[in-house]
Amino acid sequence: MSSGTTRPDRPVGLPIRTLTIEVLGGPDEGRAHTADGETVTVGTAESNELRLADPTVSRYHLELSRKGDRVAVADLGSTNGTAVGPVLLERGTVAPGTVLTLGRTSLRVGDGPTRTLSLHDSGALGPLRGQSAPMRRLMAQILRAARTDASVLLQGESGTGKELIARALHDESPRAKKPFVTLDCGVISPGLVASELFGHERGAFTGAERRHLGVFERAQGGTLFLDEIGELSPALQTALLGVLERRRFRRLGGSEELSVDVRVISATHRDLRAEVNANTFRLDLYYRLAVVRLEVPPLHQRVEDIPLLVEHFLGEAGYTGPLSALVPPPLMATLLAHRWPGNVRELRNYAEAILAMGEPPALEQAAGGPGAAPASAPAVALPLEQGYREARQKVLEDFEVQFLKALMERAGTNVSLAARLARMDRSYLIDLLHRHHLR
Ligand SMILES: Nc1ncnc2c1ncn2[C@@H]1O[C@H](COP(=O)(O)OP(=O)(O)OP(=O)(O)O)[C@@H](O)[C@H]1O
């Protein structure tokens, strides 16, 4: 199997038609912008490509991108919405020439000149595989960002490869020989995040029996990857901002100030620009984290990557035969048509299962597909006769037990594998298993 060296025989540039935006009305009337790349964001915050002064426009109001002959419009959770005539538009496409209204501002989107975007010249970058144009575009952006010390924010659905990309950013950077440390802000209990970030001194709080080094200290000189950054509480957002601004911090319960030389990469499955608009994520922290913002497309938007990825995962699992013997063309056609809600992770599990079982397992039906439960049917029995608090507790406990049983069955009782599949911290999983007497 040779997927690691696959070199698509395509040119290393992608010509795209860009966009222009003219401000026809409102406080910014007369301004215009021509896009450099495929997307343009509009809003009042500094990091928008088209920054407006109109106070009725949100900080991150709108994203416009080319979709063939049309222009895709995505409202980023703005306060006053985006309208075409009397119709409010959250997401959709419009023809060039359409006038959009944002608060008191009106904009006309139009065709811009053609530009050539650079693509990575192969289907591999470190551990990453992908030969589709979006993936090779992303690889080119990763290589460019890796050479700088800029903070990078990765945004994409779960399982799209954000952690692998963070790793590639580190491996391709001048910090490659220094540590790469990950903290998943979504799976550790909220009370422990501060001590995981900054460490603590012995006796800093009940149970702190010895000094603990936080991730900033362990990543010194290297890269810190903060996964699920959108889950940070407001207090921790403030504390993290302080460290990033001052480049210094103290362990919890400590008095010594320690200096930080760490490059921060963070990731989220949510659009933090909408969280900034809603005031649930600090704008100043967003600026610090998203000096470079990379969007990782879901797998169904880059289906050309599927054969290469399947071949790669089978090869990693030890398969040396021809791809078509395990995945004949009709099965490959099914894989290309599947929606892959779990993205590349789901594809990897699927490829490994084909090899383990010697035959293709059934693909899970996406929610809403044929056979899915009607939207109004409750997913769990609701114990309405109990009070809210007790009922919530009971439903949660039932869910945890069912989830853990299914998880341990899938993982063949291997706790490390189970933690990986469930994307949770291994020690937290062990705690949960003990709590429910499943171990
Ligand atoms: N482009 C790729 N090439 C090779 N392997 C990939 C690629 N993208 C993802 N994977 C594999 O898919 C799995 C999921 O990737 P990863 O954990 O990086 O996703 P993620 O976006 O960080 O997910 P989550 O948000 O759930 O943490 C991993 O096993 C990873 O190695």
UniProtKB/TrEMBL annotation:
Keyword Transferase: no
Entry GO MF terms: ATP binding; DNA binding
GO biological process, one term: regulation of DNA-templated transcription
Domain FHA: residue ranges: 40-89
Residue span(s) of domain Sigma-54 factor interaction: 128-356
Pfam families: AAA_lid_14, Sigma54_activat, Yop-YscD_cpl
Keywords associated with the record: ATP-binding, DNA-binding, Nucleotide-binding, Transcription, Transcription regulation
PANTHER family the UniProt entry points to: PTS-DEPENDENT DIHYDROXYACETONE KINASE OPERON REGULATORY PROTEIN-RELATED (PTHR32071:SF117), TRANSCRIPTIONAL REGULATORY PROTEIN (PTHR32071)
Protein's UniProt name: ATPase AAA
Organism classification: Bacteria, Pseudomonadati, Myxococcota, Myxococcia, Myxococcales
